[in-house]
User: What shape does this take?
Amino acid sequence: MTSIWTVLLLIISNAFMTYAWYGHLQQAGNDSWATKWGLIGAILLSWGIAFFEYVFQVPANRIGFEGNGGPFNLFQLKIIQEVVSLTVFTLFAVVVFKTERLQWNYIAAMVCMALAVFFVFKKW
Assistant: This one.
């Protein structure tokens, strides 16, 4: 159950992170708030959103870390984080922002990340 909570919290965390990092790019241009506020405004807004990323990310790592009774070591936590990050970003870019199309090389990169998960969890 701890592993499920860890992944769910990381998904929520990455939704905030993705919006903090890339949401202002979607708003840029067209005389929007992102253009009027400029770079400093985008940075400040992103910091405000990123706060909520940490509200979910820090507990996810603390709950999931084997040193705190969780099921994952540091390498496993990091690989999970990267796969969740790539998955959430892909959904945002294709579905929410609607700025990108999924291409074969993006899928190939995701397969490589899935292989990374396999290798980091494989007991040799």
Remarks:
- The chain is about 80% helix and 0% strand.
